Amino acid sequence: MGASMLDHLKANNRAWVERMVSADPDFFRRLEGQQTPEYLWIGCSDSRVPANEIVGIDPGELFVHRNVANLAPPQDANYLSVLQFAVEVLKVKHIMVVGHYGCSGVSAAVDGKRRGLVDHWLHPIREVYHEHHDALDAIPDWSARLDSLCELNVIRQVRNVASDVFVQEAWARGQDLRVHGWVYSLANGLVTDLDVTIERLGYQRKLAPDPQVKTEVNRLD
Ligand SMILES: [Zn+2]
After folding, report:
1. What band does 24 get if pLDDT is binned at 50, 70 and 90?
2. Quick check: helix, strand or coil at residue 44?
3. With helix as H, strand as E and coil as C, how does 48-79 read?
4. What's the pTM value of the predicted model, to 2 decimals?
5. How confident is the model over 131-154, as pLDDT tens digits?
6. How many Å lie between the centroid of ligand 1 and the Cα of residue 105?
7. Pairing mode, if any, of strands 62-67 and 178-184?
8. CA-CA distance, 41 to 112, in Å (whole number)?
9. 184 alpha carbon to ligand 1 midpoint, in Å?
10. Could you tell me how many helices (H) and strands (E) the chain has, helices first?
């Protein structure tokens, strides 16, 4: 049964290649030659949140890092390697931290059950909860409270990315780079920009009293 399922995937792969080549005969030749994505997507591993499909762009246009509950932990070598490569080598112009409502990682962080290693991974979300527990506990509906925590988690991760030395150094060099916070809805497929975009945090801090300079919504076009 397992083998036939994989055969099905291989057949899908061949059909996909045929579709891509019939629409654009040079597609793979071009991709093979160069990877020049303008965007780094930091999203949840959840199978219902496929990065490229959601924003309707082809392979080669989006550099992707996914983990449980879309975290950007300052000590995680995997995330940091992706971030450094994206910022210093690919020179992406936008980094989007993309959470999603109904995230089971966010829910698992605060439901009080023990699961093992993932409890440690999700620790930063519990910290966010504790910091905002007055506001969150005032939301009577549990799933609405979790959705609010999803948004707060994204905002925290945006700050983590923006305060990272790789990003700070890029801004100090004058590199064009913005960090955005989005939330995706599993219910309707729509992305909401949380309007917490940061550019030149720290670099701006020396120049202006407000360290978090919000910018207009940066659309993907
Ligand atoms: Zn999730």
Report:
1. very high
2. strand
3. CCCHHHHHCCCCCCEEEEEECCCCCCCCCHHH
4. 0.86
5. 999 999 999 999 999 999 999 999
6. 5
7. unpaired
8. 30
9. 10
10. 10, 5
